[in-house]
């Protein structure tokens, strides 16, 4: 049997960025859901309620070159994982690179703008693309159906 030991926790969340802040927010019994008028640009989105991550600063080693292929969700996940390693006292420890441990994190499916950008790149006509028009339509329909079913649940 494999054992799992949680040694550190990291978060970049609407409730806070460390356990003390998250715990205090939960114990306050105050909701952090707010109206999101900026979501009005998304056609068919039937809600304007949501939560966002509290503002945070990235350390200097998060520079443009290292983050050029990372979306916001990847940056949040990477930083939260790094904070968990710091909390555990394992950042820089050889154990991290040994293959004997891992870091697990979770996130939502991503921001609406990232989903839209990603989806558009798969369904919009691209000069010289081997996809024919009906192929793009099928891809778009599949993405839309998949996105709607994930939102509905």
Q: What proportion of the residues is helical, as a percent range?
A: 40-55%
Shape: globular
Tell me what portion of residues adopts beta-strand conformation.
under 5%
Give the biggest sheet: 2 strands, antiparallel
Task: Please count the beta strands (DSSP E, at least 2 residues each).
Answer: 2
Count of discrete alpha- or pi-helical segments spanning 4 or more residues: 6
Task: Give an overview of the whole structure.
The relative contact order is 0.12. The longest helix has 20 residues, at 133-152. The chain is mainly alpha-helical. A two-stranded antiparallel sheet has the order 1-2. The chain has helices at residues 19-28, 64-67, 72-88, 94-97, 112-123, 133-152, and strands at 34-35, 49-50. Helices cover 44% and strands 3% of the residues. It has six helices and two strands, in the order H-E-E-H-H-H-H-H.
Task: Looking at this protein, list some descriptive labels.
153 residues, 3% strand, globular, two-stranded antiparallel sheet
Brief account:
The protein is mainly alpha-helical and 153 residues long.
Write the layout of secondary structure elements.
Elements: H1 19-28, E1 34-35, E2 49-50, H2 64-67, H3 72-88, H4 94-97, H5 112-123, H6 133-152
């Amino acid at each position: 049997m494999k054992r799992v030991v949680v040694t550190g926790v990291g978060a970049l969340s609407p409730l806070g960025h460390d356990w003390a802040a998250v715990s205090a927010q939960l114990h306050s019994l105050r909701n952090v859901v707010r109206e999101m008028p900026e979501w009005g640009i998304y056609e068919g989105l039937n809600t304007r309620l949501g939560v966002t991550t509290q503002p945070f600063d990235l350390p200097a080693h998060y520079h443009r070159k290292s983050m050029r292929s990372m979306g916001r969700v990847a940056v949040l996940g990477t930083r939260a994982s790094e904070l968990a390693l710091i909390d555990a006292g394992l950042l820089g420890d050889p154990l991290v690179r040994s293959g004997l441990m891992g870091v697990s994190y979770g996130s939502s499916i991503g921001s609406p703008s990232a989903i839209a950008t990603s989806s558009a790149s798969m369904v919009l006509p691209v000069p010289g693309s081997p996809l024919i028009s009906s192929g793009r339509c099928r891809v778009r329909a599949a993405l839309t159906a998949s996105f709607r079913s994930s939102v509905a649940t």
